[in-house]
């Protein structure tokens, strides 16, 4: 069967990578989603999910696009060591919104400069192009729309559409209500919604303002915007597999179309 989009969740952990036997089912790698659509390879965020995979023969067309939400380190940590960027035959477009007057390139170079890191972007090898994030643009036949998230320092929410299939990637987002008008209009009726749900309701009493949503709020938003399928992501680093499974079971009694994203899982749309 032909699929319009082929997606693999490479990292769904929030804030900090974790490892150990209690993090096997949902994975410990931070934000990274790989998408193949319309002959394009699109990677959402460059967290540690960019590691641990054989990338050698991954790009038949030697071309990829990185859509980065913001430059908090959990979303950028995989970039300096991403193997394809050391291949001089690869070209890669990198989108990251200019913030605090720092361009995409300046934000990445802030991380990749001594003493924080010994290799700069200019000596990686691949042909890199850096872009600000416009409200709308396209990557080959894939249409991209963006909206600004509510997150300390700002973050971009992306919607990718092709042939009637649409994916919304909304991580590091602290919505102000259970049905935020701007977001619901943006994500209305999408095929797949990937939505931040780092905290429980109880935790939110002391994590308000940190820039993340809660599990019950995000489940409500998924319903309010009519997403056909929703995967909750950016799991808190202290949340174990058994805790996540229990929370997921509780959510699914009320919201049949909502699940928790698992690192490594493939989604065909
Ligand atoms: Zn994050
Ligand atoms: Zn963040």
Describe the 3D structure.
- There is one protein chain.
- With 269 residues, the chain is α/β, with parallel strands linked by helices.
- The protein has one domain (5-263): Metallo-beta-lactamase, Chain A (4-Layer Sandwich).
- The chain has helices at residues 104-111, 181-187, 204-207, 215-224, 241-254; strands spanning 5-11, 32-37, 40-44, 63-67, 91-95, 127-131, 136-139, 142-148, 156-162, 165-170, 192-196, 230-233, 258-260, 266-268.
- A seven-stranded mixed beta sheet has the order 6-5-4-3-2-1-14, with no helix packed on it. The protein has a seven-stranded mixed beta sheet with strand order 7-8-9-10-11-12-13, with helices on one face.
- A hairpin with a 2-residue loop joins strand 2 (32-37) and strand 3 (40-44).
- It is globular, with a radius of gyration of 18 Å.
- Residues 14-15, 31, 72, 74-75, 172, 234 line the site of one zinc ion.
